[in-house]
Design a protein that fits this description.
mainly alpha, Cytochrome Bc1 Complex, Chain C
C-alpha cells in the first residue's frame, strides 16, 4: 500500500466523520459544476476574499486610529511643544506607520487591499457584463451587485480622508461639492455629509460612514447577493442558444463538486496567493504618508483623488462640462448598468450575439481607462473641445468598426455552417438528449453556440 493511498483514505475517513457529526452538507454552500474550476468563474469569490481582509485589517487599525482634527502634543514627526503640531488623525496614522510593530505593512496592505478589491470588483463586473450573467433569472442578482459596487466605491471615498492629509482633504472637498450638486438628492444629503460645517464634522461623518454605515449596507447587500447566487446557482457558459436553460436541475447538482472541502480549498488557495502578493507589495513599496492638513508646506499640493475616481474628476476639466453635467452623466451610466437586464432582452448570452451592448461595454471600459490615465497625467488642466474629439472620438470609432467586423464575420460563418448542416440531413434534425444547457446538441441553434 502506497503512502499516498493510505493518506487519501485516512483523510477521507476523517472528513467523513466531520461531515457526519456537523451535518456540514446541510449548511454549506451549494455544489458547483466541475467546469467552473477556472479563475474566471470565481472573480466574485476573489472580491469576497479581499473584503474579508479589509475587515480584519481595518479592525486592527481602529485600535490605534483617532478620528480627531484637534492638535496633539504627541511628537509624531514634529517638534514637541511646537505651536504647529499636527492633527490627531494624522498623528495616529503616523504612529501606526512608525511605532506600531508591523504597522507600516498593516496600513499599506489595507490601502493596497482597497485598491485590489475595487480592481477585482471592476473585473467581476465587466466579466459578468460580457458573458451576459445578468439575463433571466439573475436580474435582481445583477442589480444587487451594482449597488454593492456603488457602496464599495463609497467605502473608498470615505476612507480616503481618514489619514487627514492635505491631498485627501482637498479631494474630499471636491467630491463633496460634486455630491451636493446632485439634483434633488444633493440638498437632502448635504446636512448629513457636512455636519456642523467644521473640519471635525466632516472627518467624523466620513469616519462614521466608513466604519459603521457603509459596512452595514455592504453586509446586507452581500448577504442578498450571496442568497440570490445560492438560489440560482452559477450561470452556465455563454451561448448563442436562445433555448438554453439558465439553471441546473437537482439531478445535475448531485453530480456537481461539493463546496466543502473542494471549492473551499480551491478558494483558499487563491486567497493565500492574494495575501502573499498583497503583503509582498506592501513590504516592497510601503505607503508614504503625505503632509497633514494645515501645513504651510502643502500649499502647492495638487488636488487629485485615488485612481478609481480620477475619471470623474477629469470629466469636470472638460470644456463645457459643469459639476452638474458630470454628476448627471455618471448617474445616467449608473442607471444604465443597474437596469441593463431589462434593456438587453435577448435570450442569447454569447458576446457575438449582442454587438450593441458589447460595443457599449467596451466604450465604457475604454472611457474609464482613458480618463483615469488622462486625469493622472494632467490633473486640473482644462481640456478643450478639439482635444476631447481627438482623444475620445478615434477610440470609439475604431471600437465600432472592430465590433461590427467581428459580428459580420460571425454572421457569415453562421450562415455557412447552417447551410452545410441543412444539406447534410435529408429529413428533420434528429432529436438528441438535452445537454446541460437544455439545447439539442445536433440542432442548428446549438451549432451557433459553438466556438468559431
Amino acid at each position: 500500500m502506497s503512502v499516498s493511498g493510505w493518506y487519501n483514505r485516512t483523510l477521507n475517513k476523517i472528513w467523513g466523520f466531520v461531515e457526519d457529526r456537523t451535518a456540514m452538507r446541510r449548511w454549506a454552500l451549494r455544489p458547483q459544476p466541475a467546469f467552473t474550476f477556472k479563475p474566471s468563474y470565481w472573480t466574485g469569490a476573489f472580491v469576497a476574499v479581499a473584503l474579508v481582509y479589509q475587515i480584519i485589517s481595518g479592525a486592527l487599525l481602529l485600535l490605534y486610529y483617532q478620528p480627531s482634527t484637534n492638535a496633539t502634543l504627541t511628537a509624531c514627526g514634529q517638534t514637541v511643544g511646537s505651536l504647529s503640531t499636527a492633527p490627531a488623525a494624522w498623528c495616529s496614522t503616523y504612529y501606526i506607520i512608525n511605532s506600531v510593530p508591523m504597522g507600516s505593512i498593516l496600513l499599506s496592505s489595507h490601502l493596497y487591499g482597497a485598491y485590489a478589491m475595487i480592481f477585482l470588483m471592476f473585473l467581476h463586473f465587466f466579466r459578468g457584463y460580457y458573458v451576459g450573467v445578468y439575463k433571466s433569472p439573475r436580474e435582481f442578482s445583477w442589480m444587487v451587485g451594482t449597488l454593492l459596487m456603488v457602496v464599495t466605491l463609497g467605502m473608498g471615498f470615505t476612507g480616503y480622508l481618514l489619514p487627514y492629509t492635505q491631498l485627501a482633504y482637498n479631494a474630499t472637498n471636491v467630491g463633496v461639492v460634486l455630491a451636493l450638486r446632485l439634483p434633488t438628492l444633493g440638498p437632502l444629503i448635504g446636512p448629513f455629509i457636512l455636519g456642523d460645517g467644521t473640519s471635525q464634522g466632516l472627518l467624523s461623518r466620513m469616519f462614521d460612514a466608513h466604519v459603521i454605515l457603509l459596512p452595514l449596507a455592504l453586509a446586507g447587500l452581500f448577504y442578498a447577493h450571496l442568497s440570490l447566487f445560492e438560489s440560482h446557482g452559477i450561470a452556465p457558459p455563454a451561448t448563442s442558444d436562445p433555448t438554453q436553460r439558465r439553471r441546473f436541475t437537482d439531478k445535475e447538482e448531485k453530480d456537481h463538486v461539493p463546496f466543502i472541502p473542494h471549492i473551499f480549498f480551491y478558494t483558499l488557495k487563491w486567497g493565500l496567493l492574494y495575501l502573499g502578493i498583497l503583503f509582498g507589495i506592501a513590504a516592497l513599496w510601503p505607503w508614504n504618508l503625505p503632509t497633514y492638513v494645515g501645513n504651510t508646506a502643502a500649499a502647492a499640493v495638487v488636488t487629485e483623488p485615488d485612481w478609481y475616481f480620477l475619471w470623474l474628476f477629469k470629466l469636470v476639466d472638460f470644456q463645457g462640462v459643469t459639476p452638474v453635467i458630470a454628476i448627471g452623466g455618471s448617474t445616467a451610466i449608473l442607471l444604465y448598468i443597474l437596469f441593463l437586464p431589462f434593456l438587453d432582452r435577448s435570450k442569447r448570452t454569447h458576446p457575438r450575439d449582442r454587438p450593441v451592448f458589447i460595443y457599449l461595454a467596451t466604450c465604457l471600459l475604454e472611457f474609464f481607462i482613458l480618463m483615469t490615465v488622462w486625469g493622472g497625467e494632467t490633473p486640473g488642466v482644462q481640456i478643450t473641445y478639439p482635444s476631447i474629439a481627438l482623444g475620445i472620438g478615434p477610440i470609439f470609432g475604431v471600437t465600432a468598426v472592430a465590433v461590427g467586423l467581428f459580428h459580420w464575420r460571425y454572421r457569415l460563418s453562421y450562415r455557412r455552417r447552417l447551410a452545410a448542416r441543412q444539406m447534410s440531413y435529408a429529413g428533420p434534425y434528429p432529436r438528441g438528449a438535452p445537454s446541460v444547457s437544455g439545447s439539442h446538441p445536433t440542432s442548428a441553434v446549438s451549432e451557433v453556440g459553438s466556438s468559431d
